[in-house]
Specification:
With 133 residues, this protein is of the alpha+beta class. It has three helices and eight strands.
């Protein structure tokens, strides 16, 4: 079965694995998903990610991060904003703040896939992909 929204599929897999307290989660690879995984790593939401080559296709293995005990989740929420049926764009003046700056918004711009903070620095807008807090 074909996935109509691969980014939402990735976020759902991460959310489900996080809720079930799994150590790792596997996601089919794409350039956009790799960019999102890199942002999650840079912002400290995941421990690491690896690109695994399994013959004809590649997989991203994301190692989730938890607090001192496994009951404390680092990622408390993920929300897909722009969907295939309803694209959401924001110009440089209207970039969203997630929980007053406690979370991050991932934005696809002409400078690449970046966080809302970086987009404000570069003074660019784009498609608001998701919120993570």
């Amino acid at each position: 079965m074909a996935v109509t929204d691969p980014i939402a599929d990735m976020l759902t897999r991460i959310r489900n694995a996080n809720t079930a307290k799994h150590d790792t989660v596997d996601v089919p690879s794409s350039k956009m998903k790799l960019a999102i995984a890199q942002i999650l790593l840079d912002e400290g939401y995941i421990r690491k990610y690896d690109l695994i080559d399994e013959g004809s296709y590649k997989t991203i293995r994301i190692t989730l991060k938890y607090g001192a005990d496994k009951n404390e989740k680092i990622i408390s929420g993920l929300q897909r904003i722009s969907k295939p049926g309803l694209r959401v764009y924001a110009n440089k003046e209207d970039l969203p703040k997630v929980l007053g700056g406690l979370g991050i918004a991932i934005i696809s711009t002409n400078q690449g896939v970046i966080t809302d903070k970086k987009a404000r620095e570069l003074k660019v807008g784009g498609e608001v992909l998701c919120f993570i807090w």
